[in-house]
């Protein structure tokens, strides 16, 4: 039996892409998954599919940039289930116009609010209950640019995704005393809808050579299923056909 059996996992950004794949993988392992995201229809689609496959899934519409709303969702999960065993902070975004020339103040603020502040809001909302139980796993979805900044990512995406790496390590430095652990996952290009927001999205034949969402789902489950004395501090993962190595076509998941 999986160690995830009867556990509760909260996934932000759970209505699509990496968050959806992580939710499916954790549900297959026996966890009850609570999906958060801004689009109710997307959350319902994923939850219904998980339930049809025999899993347990719930939804909570949420913009992670709204700190008060994040705390309300966490409180509702704890009121219903009494625990949050795994937090997958997967909500993230980039903008089509992302260069220094094109990125305005509002765009910058939105990237920081969603990618960085939104992750912090979810962590802070889940931590008290995890500390009380002296058990909990946080999985933060960053990006290849969290380690290797690229022009294509843009300054806002690069900066926020690198900040997530430091946030995860800071969590481990403080919360090991309480039996908690954090892993930051830094994927290269993943064939998700987010790539469609690029100024020049990859063609279909190239998308097929990239990481697939299910690859990240397996990665998330791997981290969550590690014995409680093990901390996987970070994972840098990419397709073998890694366009970040092509000087003519630098690439990033955003």
Automatic annotation (TrEMBL):
Keywords: Oxidoreductase. One of its GO terms (molecular function) is oxidoreductase activity. InterPro entries: NAD(P)-bd_dom_sf (IPR036291), SDR_fam (IPR002347). It comes from the Bacteria. It is an enzyme of class 1 (oxidoreductase). Its EC number is 1.-.-.-. Belongs to the short-chain dehydrogenases/reductases (SDR) family. This is SDR family oxidoreductase. It comes from Azospirillum argentinense.
